[in-house]
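Continuing the batch. This is chain 6 of the set; chains 1 through 5 are on the previous pages. Same settings as before, nothing changed between runs. Recording input and output for traceability.
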Amino acid sequence: MGRIARSPRKRPTLPRRMTLAAAALILGGGGLAAVNFYASASEGGAGGHGSPGQDMAQLRTLSTIDCPDVGNSLSTVPDSAKSRVDRQLADLDTQITDAYSEFADNKDRIERDPALADSMVLAPLKAKRTDSIGRIADATGQPDLNGRNLAACSMRAADEPAPGDRAGDPGSGQGDGQSGQAGGQNAGQGSGQGDGQALAATAAASGLSRRDFVDIRSVRPNAAAPAPRRGASTGSFTSDCGRNRNGKRNPDNVIVAPGVSNGAHHMHDYVGNQATDAFSSDADLAGGGTSCRNQGDKSTYYWPVVRVLDRGNDVDAKADGGGRDKNLGKIQTPVQATIQFVGSPVSKVTAMPRFLRIITGDAKAFTNGNANANASWSCTGFENRQLKDAYPLCPQGSKVVRTFKFQSCWDGKNTDSANHRAHVAFTDRRGACPAGFKAIPQLVQRIVYDVPAKAGAFAVDSFPEQLHKPVTDHGDFIDVFSDQLMGKAVNCINSGRACA
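Output for chain 6:
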């Protein structure tokens, strides 16, 4: 559904409005309140003949909460204030989650009286956020945070792009809007009536629409990498850490919300370090066991789980990170998970510092916009075609692939930063690091799933208000290589060898 202006025409009668609102929920409103059900631009089609289907395509439903990301606004956090700030940032996430639940639980009342969205949801949320932001401003010595209008949230439609993003182009994050749009049409029409029924049955729980799924065969090749130049480091180092067959999962995030249980509000798969949870210190990680074959790699690798949505729920259906946070469905163990470190196309690489933390992608990209979105989705046999903001529909015999290519430039000083991003950076189009940054081994994670090839059948876990959109996918990494093993990896990469 595209961006549609408010119609000057006569509003439909209440019964008809409610019927259209209910239909909009099935077609991708995320199972939430269809608050703005007057937003039909026209009641007639191209030929001048209106139809319910055309009206439904033009509806806009306010179905999620959009709040400024306070964490991204932090420039510095004194060490003495870090724990207090982390706690307040986690509280801000919980406040949004609770407000979203209030919205979802009262959707019938809000449909009847849209003004309740403000009095029941947005106004109480703003009051809580104002208090938390004030505490962060005091702790960090950044009083200007209070003046940046960070407390006020709004409601938005599931199909409305975040500020600065292009509307209506699944896959456009990879610069291929036309192929993404065609794929969206194929996803909704090409697989037959069964796919549409599966989507309708799961939309209320997932927040997905047909446009979130793209036939990978409709996507043009778009995954070219910079050509290596003289002085490039062309080797690789692979660490075999398994695919989480032992089911190590939790909804914590020790990087963003240390010391906070359920800081992620969605479930993570872990490979590598087995001591990782919200309360893990660097010493805990150094002393922890690892699922990696080479015991010198005790690094932590984690990412949101993928669930199949129409095969019942998992054991966490009533738990934090699972059903309590709107993450339902059967968790899928990857059929393959590859952890590889590669070099720079323009220079040699230097060793990562131990306990370096890197987050790639943005768990809140659906509301933040895709400036920091970075995960890619594709299919085996088609990996020269990558999608950023759509899930792939793979042909028979092909499996879903999600890929994380982490930042490969380091500031040479810090293992973390206030917003968990400023201490690392991506290369430019030629593969060179920004001024003042050093090239380090680039972590590339490739995770493969055997999931149904039908729209609406699977999704990644997310914060509830992010509606499980593919653009919110992200990966997290803490380097706990031994010095000896990191030295070996750097030597292999710089000398052009493939090592494991």
